[in-house]
Amino acid sequence: DGEEVEVEVEVEGEEEEEEEEEEEEGDSAQLKQASRRDMYSICEFAGLGGLAKKFGLTPEQFGENLRDNYQRHETDQYPAEPNDLSKEFVCSQFPSEEKVLQGARHMVAMQLSREPLVRQCIRQTYFERAKVSSKPTKKGRKEIDEMHYGYTFKYLKNKPVKDLTGDQFLKMTIAEDEGLLKTHISIDGEGQSTQSYFEEIKQLYYRDEFSHLVQEWNTQRTMVLERMLKFILYPQMEKELRSKLVQEAKDGIIKSCCRKLYNWLKVAPYQPEQQVEEEDEYIEGMGSTKGLRVMGVAYSSEWDTASFAAVVDGEGDVVDFLRLAHLMKRRNAYREQDRENKLGDMEAIKRLILNKKPHVIVIGAENRDAQSVIDDVKLCVKELEEEEQLAPIAVELLDNELGRFIMNSPRAEAEHRDYPPLLRQALSLARRMQDPLIEFSQLCVNNEDLLCLRFHPLQEQVNKEELLHALELEFINRVNEVGVDINRCVAIIHTTTLAQFVCGLGPRKAAYILKVLKQNNARLENRNQLVMMCHMGPKVFMNCAGFIKIDTKSLGDSEQYIELLDGSRVHPETYDWARKMAVDALEYDESAEDANPAAALEEILETPERLKDLDLDAFAEELERQGFGNKSITLYDIRAELNSMYKDLRTPFRSPTVEEKFNMLTKETPETFYIGKLVQCRVTGIAHRRPQGEQLDQANPVRSEETGLWRCPFCQQDSFPELSEVWNHFDSSECPGQATGVLTRLDNGVSGFVPTKMISDKHVKSPEERVKPGMELYTRIIKIDIERFRVDLTCRSSDLSDQNGDYRPARDLYYDHETEETDRKADEEAKKKQARTTYVKRVIVHPCFHNISYKQAVKLMESMDQGDVIVRPSSKGPDHLTVTWKVDDGIYQHIDVREEGKENAFSLGQSLWINNEEFEDLDEIIARHIQPMASFVRDLTNHKYYQAADGGKREVIEKILHVEKKKAPSKIPYLISASKEDPGKFLLCYQPKTSARHEFVTVTPDGFRFRQLIHHSVNALFRWFKEHFRDPIPGATPVNVRHRTPMAPSRPENTPAPSGINLPGVDPAQLSQLQKAISAFPSNLSTQQVFNALAAATSQGSSATPAQWGSQGYSQNQGQYHTGAGYSGAAGSSSYQTFANPTPMATPMMTPAYPSATPAQGQPQSTPRYQPTPQSSWGHGHGHSHGQGHGHGHGHAAASASTSGNTPARAPPRPSTSAGTDWGKAALQWVQQQQRNKQRGGDTPKIRTPGHHTPSHHTPSHRTPSHRTPTHRATMSLSPMVEGTPMIESTPISAMGDATPLIDEPQET
């Protein structure tokens, strides 16, 4: 039912757990028991086991019902309803009746799922009925085409797992691992209308009654079965079945690999038509002419590489070789020099064959050129047969896959260090013809060399150890089937690899036996010497003795007794039975004194047909009565061995069939080269059909009316001025005939032909109109001629698309065509939707402009350098552009550009705007806006504390800071990282104590903006940060502040709080500013001080100016506050006093003061000029330069109060009132005074919003703009630059804008 059981579990304290751990560690003799705190144990601990027993059937009874498929055990019914019964089990872990029932259902479901009989029945049914379905992912729909291995099962629906064949499920698993497919296995299938398995078995758990009580319990039982199947057993069974199917597929691959190796090893040594015997005539360079002599020829696919031929004697040693530098040239080459060189190589081959007289010549199947090499060698042999009456020599083709690996193997390089690789390949080909088993065993020296051969396309998916073990078993079977001649292994080095596969030996014991024989310079003359000379134990001897053969015919000069049976497969423990069989077959009298079983054995070997008359079954019965067991099979094997001792049971060598030759030369298989496959080919020419006699007689040349020239009706040549020249064209055989198609060549060397009608769906008069030699064509195979190595192709668009599926591979029988069609239509709709351009294509000539979308721009930016720019159309409309520039790898900032003064929708505007800044053209944007930011970004990314942190992920950064904080707890680690979520911004992260803090640093063309300040360089940024990181962050409300703000001290008890101001006729914006200003002032100020403060807050004219505050009572109270904060005042200022609460804490509501005096009414007004910050003050966060006209904070005195240098007279100080002030009345009086001034002709007061405070212990001043006369031009306020000394920007930035801090925890004090 999909329910999740939620339980409240009390966690024991850490101290109790530590005490238990100490007790367990103290008792080392006892093993630590696994602690189970799963859901079942919690339910059991809560006592729900009693409720679980009330469901009516035990797991054993339900298992028997499933096994017998009928309700063998009736379900018991408890008289109380489930909800009423569950009330008795309510506890802290299960606080409600429903929770109790959930826990009880979980317990019953777990008990049923753990019952072995239940699992056995459900597993058996699941494996029989399981169906697999597959559907491609978004990636799979694009990548799985008809050339992909998963094309046949791209869409499957309810295919029974028992119908899976071969490695199909393994391919599905591989595709799923690659993210191409999603497979699902279920017992009921998808969309099945038949009864589900759950519906079948729930009848075996029900009670068949219709009362309300029974129905309530049946509902609970239904939920139990559903939970048991869907959430417990089905997932387990699916996982188990998947593992089983994958393992079966891998076992099938291993068997396929072993079968292919068996096909290679089962081939017997080559046997020529004439008997191979030791010849009496002397052959130059050969010490012994015994055995099979083979000549191997190896060539390279590169024509400029020399080929090699090698002749080996019967022992596999090279007796002569030949370098053939011009073998791959054609006999009818165009150049005479090439023809002469080719003939020279062929004469050299003839001399080598004549001198060494090989029994067979083998050619490596490198590619299709092997056919021409075979033709050349056969021609040489034929000429020798005619000229020198040489015996016929066969020329065979052999796969060179083994030779290509061996020629580069370390063993071959060590054995034949001076041989070039192709000569070593020719040697390998010759030895493989002599005995494939010996040559393939060369790969078993190192463990994984054998896996270099290609046994199966999916052999990499199989465990290497398992595959190697299976392949070694195949070697063991074949080697022991043939037998190993130990004396030959000692004499011939390259045959020693066979000894390790003898049963009972292995690599170590085999190497020891060979070492002993070599050290003693002895040969093994009988099998008993394995024990006496080689010190072999009885067990090893019994295992290996029957597979070690001794050539008794070559031991004629031996002084020891020669046992004839040592040269057979008969085991020494059955020698007596073999002799008994020989005596009985010859009907010798065993009781006679002169009876000699050995002589009888020699005689029976000469006439083995007499063994047919023996009754081996009676002999086997006698042996069984004597206690030897059933030896019937052994006796029949002995008789077969006496008929032919150590007969080679391998398949004789045969020449490859036409299909095998095609696969060898093209390196293709029926699975990789088939009708309907899409292939790429190169055009080599145009095919023509010459006209025959009757066609020439009936030819009718046509004269062109436009040019007056005659045209050939066959080759369509139209350059003949006279009709007679056309007939001369026919008679001289210059007419190639009518073009019939296009000649091509595939990558595998197969020739291709495209008929003219298959070139295009439209009519094609001549192929020359469509193709040229050297052109690449995409075609589809429609016919394969393996004998001629030729295929017919088509390149028509209709055939390539193959909408009807005439050429595509056959799909699975359970292929889901409906789902595929639905996905295809959805993909087409998505493509159409994507094809609709969301932007207007612009006509802008600039190297950085591209008419591309956002995704295309990001993809193009991946290969570009940092700081590169792409200008593209904007989705906001034709009057916008988007400038995308690369901040860092994977981080791209998109800047909106507004255009004005456009001639039309496609042209570039005459003026370009980024926010409120104007640019003339795109080059100016790149030079003034993008390149400075890119330079600043490079400075940050090259800083030693920069971390990529996976695109500025805070969790990654916090881990780094946590590690650094652990290394040095007394220090504050910090780092900076580029933000991928907010391109153009960097995260400045630091950890003062236990948790990290994150703030944004925004890169601007002017520098780095941090806490609303602009910094010119990285060093200035970090220097200011180190000095002010503890300051309150602008826009962030401080929390956990344990002291009061000095600008809002505690009020006396009798002082009323500032009330809301409601003044008729006053602008609401002014009222808001007044409210803020009033709430920020202390309560112990006089009325005149309030007036002065309000005038300064709203930048209005008053009898007092900010420069005069230093001599008034307000200045006296405020100055001591700044002195307490640790700031030095201006020169000559000594009248500072302290507020009631001197704790330094600046607030955002503090009104800044300005150094320039507010002009009185009627006086001329001018734009104030600001003095630059002196260089000497840069780098000092708390330094002040009052002499330059910069006032700091409220109530700071300045040496120069105005730009003109005139210092206004200071008003006499008034004593401050001790009682509280009614700020509502004070504000009303002030507003009335301002209205009276307005009636006198003064300007309307303007209330200016105070800027945000600086993140330091004081509040720097803002610039106060003066009233402008109509004759003065308005000047734009510039963003201040900070080098050490912070200055606030003239235009305040919203606290929620770029400089918004990311605070993850309350600020620490």
Describe the structure.
- This protein has about 1300 residues and is of the alpha+beta class.
- The protein contains 40 helices and 27 strands.
- The chain has a five-stranded mixed β-sheet with strand order 6-5-4-7-8, sandwiched between helices. Strands 11-14-15-17-16 form a five-stranded mixed beta barrel. The chain has a five-stranded antiparallel β-sheet with strand order 18-19-20-21-22, sandwiched between helices.
- Strand 7 (about 360-365), helix 13 (about 370-390) and strand 8 (about 395-400) form a beta-alpha-beta unit.
- Helix 12 (about 335-355) crosses helix 13 and helix 37 (about 1070-1080) packs across helix 38.
- It is extended and about 155 Å long.
- The two termini are about 55 Å apart.
Quick structural summary:
The chain is α+β, with helices and mostly antiparallel strands and 1309 residues long. It is 36% helix and 12% strand. The strands form seven sheets. It has a five-stranded mixed beta sheet with strand order 6-5-4-7-8, sandwiched between helices. A five-stranded mixed barrel has the order 11-14-15-17-16. A five-stranded antiparallel beta sheet has the order 18-19-20-21-22, with helices on both faces.
